[in-house]
Amino acid sequence: MHRLQWEEAQQKDVILYPEGMVELNQSSAEILKCCDGTRNLAQIVNDLEQKFATTGLTNDITAFLEDALKNGWIQQN
Amino acid sequence: MAGSNKTNPTTALRTGITPPRWLLAELTYACPLQCPYCSNPIDYAKYQSELDTEDWRRVLTQARKMGAVQLGFSGGEPLTRKDLPELVKHARDLGYYSNLITSGYGLTEEKIVQLKEAGLDHIQVSIQASSQELNDHIAGTASFQHKKEVAHLVKKHGYPMVLCVVIHRENIHQMPEILAMAEELGADYLELANTQYYGWAHANRDLLLPTKEQFEQAEQIAQAFKEKVAGKMKIYYVVPDFYEDRPKACMNGWGTTFLTIAPDGVALPCHSARELPGLDCPNVKDYSIEQIWNESKAFNFFRGFDWMKEPCSSCDEKEKDFGGCRCQAYLLSGDMYAADPVCSKSPNHPVIQEAIDSAKATALADNEKPLIFRNSKNSRLLS
User: Fold this and answer.
1) pLDDT tens digits for B149-207?
2) A26-68, pLDDT tens digit by residue?
3) Which residues from A are below 8 Å from B231, CB to CB?
4) For the residues B233-245, what does the mean pLDDT come to?
5) Cβ contact (<8 Å) for B67 and A7?
6) Do B67 and A14 touch (CB under 8 A)?
7) Three-state secondary structure string covering chain B
8) Do residue A16 and residue B70 have CB atoms under 8 angstroms apart?
């Protein structure tokens, strides 16, 4: 129902859905790209912390994913 | 500085112009339905020519390149175009998020599957009322049962189920039943579109405009339902601007976001803009989308704020609503530069109350005049 794609003209990732579009900042897009159905929350946090060489992302990522779930951008298995 | 006087006029013009995001492709004015609030122009019957497949492919390619991403295939009834699956496929290849805006009439399971395979993202089915009798009366065609079947098939084949019901005086009392129907059909999105009074709806306004009490009651019911289904069904409620005291930010501002291409190839900043005089709307057969969007007279006509008159030009809300709708200003005041009369600051605002009173008087009259249905015969009679 929702589609995540890179928009060349806008130079950003967007989520497309009926009658709407959400423009994503880089961190939101990075988190959503990890939601591929194979990783759990802990793995997503771990992967992103490694990728961006940082720590302490758990709370931010959890809060964002809760919003994403509420908006229907992702589904929970 | 050397060369500073060599500014390319085209580049200068482009400063501040945002690219299109939303493309409405009106593939045809042909339609098996006759809804008396149709958004097509009253005189649609005189526009017989239609763009061919190659024209549409080019339009889609050019608009996508500029940044258009949401695409609506509309009409008339877009299913009457034999090349629809090909255009859907081309749109998908280009990366559009595409929507088929349909009456459902003539949509079979085979076509639903074929369009899915071609890459269509969603289907918006319109239903005119919650009862067969009223639906078929408003649509001017026996279509109710088929529409419900189509809605089930859309859901069955994994599309988001987008249901659209246009609200007016004839069906506003059915709001609870309309909402129950949306739930029964498993709608993921429900668009409750209060009629906007242009074109055919303008001609039928006395018969379609509900009273304020009817609006408020219906809105209350819809609001309670919205809370009840939160998280399961998303409701888009298009407000009836005749009962607002500020105008809508029409089209998100002229020439900022929306691009409509009419069946004959005329490019419009909004789907009603054909009604405005002197815009010389360009045709995609003569110009590229980029030329049309950036350089044409029509798309620059109401860009920005320089065209505004008082009370808009000094209004502190002008950046919020852009003076409202140009087509509504023209239809209701005869002046397309005027403030939208919906605005309580507009000197023409009393015409709104007159329209409301006139509709109420018509509702109370014993001999209601009949609705003018949208068909070629009436189109020729009225234009």
Assistant:
1) 999 999 999 999 999 999 999 999 999 999 999 999 999 999 999 999 999 999 999 99
2) 999 999 999 999 999 999 999 999 999 999 999 999 999 999 9
3) 70
4) 92
5) yes
6) no
7) CCCHHHCCHHHHHHCCCCCCCEEEEECCCCCCCCCCCCCCCCCHHHCCCCCCHHHHHHHHHHHHHHCCCEEEEECCCHHHCCCHHHHHHHHHHHCCEEEEEECCCCCCHHHHHHHHHHCCCEEEEECCCCCHHHHHHHHCCCCHHHHHHHHHHHHHCCCCEEEEEEECCCCHHHHHHHHHHHHHCCCCEEEEEECCCCHHHHHCHHHHCCCHHHHHHHHHHHHHHHHHCCCCCEEEEECCHHHCCCCCCHHHCCCCCEEEECCCCEEECCCCHHHCCCCCCCECCCCCHHHHHHHCHHHHCCCCCCCCCCCCCCCCCHHHHCCCCHHHHHHHHCCCCCCCCCCCCCCCCHHHHHHHHHHHHHHHCCCCCCCCCCCHHHHHHHC
8) yes
Give the three-class secondary structure for A73. coil
| CB < 8 Å from A in window 35-94 of B | 65-67, 69-70
Please report which confidence band the pLDDT of residue B15 belongs to, taking 50, 70 and 90 as the band edges. Answer: low
The mean pLDDT of B244-255, rounded to a whole number, is 95
Which ipTM score applies to this complex? 0.89
Reading the block at residue B228, the tokens are 């009840």
| Strand B234-238 versus strand B258-261 pairing type | unpaired
B65 vs A contacts (CB less than 8 Å): 9
Count of A–B CB contacts within 8 Å? 41
